[in-house]
């Protein structure tokens, strides 16, 4: 008997009723070879094929057991598109009729008396013929199913060859097929400098494939009644604020995890600021501009996943890491999987990310992704990811332990938002579900997601109807993960192989040329003989955006002897020199490890007094650049300096009094007959009078014979009040 598990099947299989067409011409019988006329040959095992209405193909899988010959077989059939799973075959027969090897079978419990009748090809590997049901006739064909040994033959050699061609130091691969881990291996080196090999237990950063763990954990919380996918997320995060008021009120976890919040990526908020907490990130969302309307379009956003993870933390009382570890990793036995940088570096078998510089592999920095964790901080291995894939292909159950029901699992891969167009070469649009993309590959349903972070690239692909799952990861940013996943899918699905390597190599070969071309195009737009409007020291200062945080412009030593100092830009982990471009525009130059910033243009903006008041920079692909306001001079916040300003200042026979503030303002100014004004620290040595537009104060230190003074700038003029020393006040009092 066939021992495959029988799953729930549809009650009806009416393949032709949904289509209006006449019976089609059937495939011509294949002439059997002399050997096949003598014996049908072995049939038991897996066969894969399709029933073919006009312009369509219904994929099917058949499994046989028992002896060849009349009445000696048992079997089952699965037709995923019809919801048929492991349905028993009726009287399957494989025999010789008039010297021709023939196959016949019906399908149990299906109306219309469905029946296969076909003959076997000369090489014994295929069967073709007719499928009839309810008086209609269609053609069918099937071929011997692929075994893991056959599919993997030569793959090790292929993988090692790809590492060389695509200039990648190391890779790990896992394949799950028909409920078994049929392959888990490492290739190349996890650490080039130390000459350490990668293996199936080596930890790699899996990037955004972490998202599927986050949505899985949320679905578990939904099952416990802690969360609801379609409840406004402010139910769980009442302090959430967004620029779009509609999104603020109606945003749900389903919106967040299917990337339809209206926000673009805004990735530098988290990438350049690794020390932020998730709570601090929540506050910054109120200042990040959307680029499309709420639920209007798919726009990938890692911040929404971090926020979804924070919602899980709020309702569970656990950190996202602790919930994921206790509810997913430990039940699965994913014992090597780690969160973030510190945990990973503490292990003795982890991969380092690499790039190529001057023709050699060099290790590059790994970023600490703790606070953005729910979007991409997991590090895992081929062996551990094989268990994750086994869980998914097993319908939420592994080794007798169920982590989610099948309907719950189905919810996570139910398409929510479509994106991408349909081209003549495509098989349809790609949809985004909850942490997964859904599309088809050569007619096979594919559920997948990629990941990329700091020199690591990952791909996870599931083919549920084919019981196939694939994991690939490299320790250099590379197309190899996708190429390897497609190569394995084609091997296991019996598809014609496609060479994708030559194109990827050509892209590598032309990458430097492309960068040079982009620099040349930018240079062509540069205005000649357009000097800066002021000394470079005038631009130095701290600039702030409430969402993106602080950018510091400072004087740094020049890389060459041409200039003693140049401007530098610091933004979180980014630290790059600036070159003057034209007028008030400076350009971020190339620095190893800071490629993300190369080419960014920084435009300084004046206030009405001619001082640098802000800078604008294209930190996101939004229509308008991000504007960062210049922050108060640090010295104007220094208590010791502020104490030196306290005193009385003589102006046109009046005494102005400067005192330390008792509230938020560090200083106050009292003018006789007027209310007391708070002095708010500003830029370029000036304080602003609170609630008095256009009124500012500068304090000048004593110099030579000139006493210290307070200079008051106001719309109708500039006034200088000299500081009165203690003995002068006594003289004025005696008079």
UniProtKB/TrEMBL annotation:
Coiled coil: none annotated. One of its GO terms (molecular function) is serine-type D-Ala-D-Ala carboxypeptidase activity. It holds the Pfam family Beta-lactamase. It is an enzyme of class 3 (hydrolase). This is D-alanyl-D-alanine carboxypeptidase. Residues 526-621 form the Peptidase S12 Pab87-related C-terminal domain. Residues 1-27 form the signal peptide.
